[in-house]
Amino acid sequence: MLFLSLLYVSIAWSSPWRSSVQLSPVISDKDNLSVLEHLKNLSSDQFLGRKFASPGSIESQDYLVSALKALSIPAFNNQYRHHFKQSTLFQSKQGTNVIACIPGTHQKDEYIVLTAHYDHLGTKRNKIYNGADDNASGVAALLLYAELLKNSPLKYSVILLFTDGEEVDLLGAKAFIAEQKNILSKIKVNINLDMIAGSKKTKKLRFLKKDLAQLLSSQQLDELTQLQHHFKTNSVIHLTPGFRRVKSVGSNVNRANWLMASDHGVFSKAGIPFIYFGVGTHKNYHSEFDDYANINQNFYLAAINIIFQQLVYIDNAMYEGVIPD
């Protein structure tokens, strides 16, 4: 089995890292089983690779909406499905973002946006590209976070944005930014999860961050950096800043431009700070071998825990900055 109780990293309070902010507790074994079940389901043949504007995509949407309803997670602006069009010279296709929102306890009208794209590549040469790492892993994590945050909301409201069309020029993220101009100034940060389970040999969870100085004081930025360094040296995922500058495997997309490699790039272009978590490319990327059997389960469960702790830290740290002296 997975030896779940051995996976997690607690903060070594005797270490040089210090914070007045209490970090979240580790995620339970029950939560781990739930998130793995979501990942397994979403990357099954049932969804035929979740290709943009396909029957498998619609089934994926149904799955997400059902899961959110089962958890009593409120829909964003009173609807879960937010449609958009991709129009070309010869045809028009409909994409659909699935969006929910959990009100914050203190700053209800300001938002942290969590993103994970649910679309993938569909089928090629009669083989299903199930996209377990890319990106059923991020989607399943967001479903778990939805449950955790419903029971213990953050200070800021959290928008859970499951984007469509990431594999087609980041269409879903672009549609969200275009449709939500009235709240863009209220979005404090985007945290994007795209490929956080890796392959069997994956050893590092990488991250990219930009413009966090708009949110956090220099002291808080230093604390966050120290926390991330702690996770690099004291966890099974070896949290590491930056991505390898290589062209992606199995795709004509040049992922060397990591600033625009996934949905966070759209938020960044709109002036919104972000942190992007992912493993980068690996041998199963954009292939029929990216399935549930080939992910690194121990790595994945540790990753979702450590990402969640950083989310809670950022939420608390941002609020510290608005509390009157």
From TrEMBL:
**Domain Peptidase M28, residue spans:** 97-305
InterPro entries membership: M28_fam, Peptidase_M28
Task: Provide the GO MF annotations for this entry.
Answer: metalloexopeptidase activity
- Report which superkingdom the organism of origin falls in: Bacteria
Q: SUPFAM superfamilies given for it?
A: Zn-dependent exopeptidases (SSF53187)
Which biological process, per GO, is one annotated for this protein? proteolysis
Supply the name of the protein: Peptidase, M28 family
Q: Which organism is it from?
A: Colwellia psychrerythraea (strain 34H / ATCC BAA-681) (Vibrio psychroerythus)
